[in-house]
Task: structure prediction
Amino acid sequence: MIAVTILNRLIMAAVTLFGVALIVFVLLRVVPGDPIAMMISPGATPADIAAMRAHYGLDASLPVQFGLWLKAVAVGDFGTSISLKRDVLGLLGDRLPATLELAFAALVLAVLVGGIVAIVGTLVRRTVLEPIIDSLNGLFLAVPDFVWALALVLVLGVAFPLFPLSGRIDPGIETEFHTPFYLIESLVTLHFAIFADVAAHMVMPVLALGLPLAAIVARVLKATLSEAMLQDYILLARLKGMSNLRLVLQEALRNAVGPTIALTGVQFTFLIGGTVIVERIFAYPGIGNMAIDAVINRDLPLIQGLVLVFGLLFIVINLLVDALVAAFNPRLAHG
Amino acid sequence: MAEITATHAPVTPSRGSRRWRALLREPKVLMGGGFILLLIVLAVFAPFIAPKDPLEQDLMSGTLPPSWMDGGDQNFLLGTDDLGRDVLSRMIFGTRIALTVAFVAASLSALIGTLLGLFAGWYGGWADRIISRLVDIWMAFPPVLLSILLVAVFGSGVHSVIAAIVIIDWTRFCRVVRSETQAQAQMDYVTAARTIGFSKLHILFSEILPNVAPVLIALVSLEMGIAVIVEAILSFVGLSVSSDTPTWGGMIAEGRQIIHDGWWVLVAPLAALFATVLAFNQLGDGLRRALDPVMRR
Result:
């Protein structure tokens, strides 16, 4: 049964990815503005233009172009970026790790902050502190990453310039990275000064991305915890003399984790979407920032590759979340 | 049939007025709604309220700080940008684009999403499968990237921004309305309506839709907040309306450029954006509390 369910999920995922690819492909071909016209030199003859068009595969009919592109993608060939004149897969390989480091740091922040707020909120239920925590949480729920990012620019970048405003690493630092995972590499190779600099560059974007998610985690977890605290088994444990904190951490939390993971996973995919604009604001060299430039430059192969990567991330995260939820819910696993 | 209408007809007017009273008792509705009303007044009467022409450049008084600060000019309450344009006036005129996009885009996405959600949830079968799959595919796109892509396809301008938001955000309504419709379809009143012999379409629009409406109305208010943000993001990236029209997002982009010389150019529109999004959220939250009979208890 489980194998069938997994197979079913994978087929659905493939259909979704195909749909994403098809929509983007068709959408891009109706874009007004010829990418070739943007890159030719003024003296080019019509023959030169036609040759260039053929070089980028833009001279065939739409279905043929789509078929060729799919076939190439299947073997890992995403084509050549028109604006950056580089192999798309190589560009993605360079930029995706920057975005992944950002997104996962934001996820960790969100789970930690959200978890702590939820536990504290559950402990102070029916006291004067509860409405204060709830309204603060409501504020973070309502205001999106774009606004937080700019507010952080003003507060931590200009009023109290504690953290760098843009980029991923201080251009003055001379070092050679062997992998595109700067944060992890500098930590593993014990270059703490470099690690500190890379981390400082991530503080503001991570806060902007992570705080709205933290608010969501806090609300869902607090709601499920509060509900769990009313159950009979909690009453029993309380009668046995367990402290409130231990009740929440040992008993209630275990049963509240499942729904929180499910929702956090879905929201994490939104967070990855949010990297597009947050990376732009902080001039952070990830795939989001590159995507905006790619659209502005009408760089068709690059946009296609980027959208496919975003779609793939979305699907992989959803599959992982389903697996995690099943792992945390014994009823689902046996069903 | 006649008896049925006779039994529930007298209840309707009192239920309606009770809802109104519940609405006006909800502080979130009053605060959020009040702020939105203020914005509407600012947008409609912008030429009479704004102290200056929002487009008038005065290079002699460029990047002036707010009037209460050192070097501020009494004529420019919130200061000027690098081209010497009055920040306050541009902010007031910015409400026009923000509200236009909010109202039009949210209503259209609600209309399309609700219709598809109602059909998917009520008729099920292949209609449901196709619509749900479409929603899944849509969710796999990062919304900001898709909106930038769509505006690039349509060409910049307020119509493109609205179209992009509708194309992306109908799924929000579709998902919620679909699951609400499925839940309502299980209710006794629906079975009753079927037994009486109402047609499926009639039950959907005159029995189920009114019960889905409270959630829907709250969602429209939230969507207006989202639309304001999306417009600001697109203006920020430089893909929304032309730079002749003042927008909050455009001001934010200018402010980000000259952040070290004139932070106030960024603060003013950001504060407006913050307050507007919060107001739409409070209004939506309050509406949901006031209209939803279960939440009201």
The two ends of chain B are 32 Å apart (CA to CA).
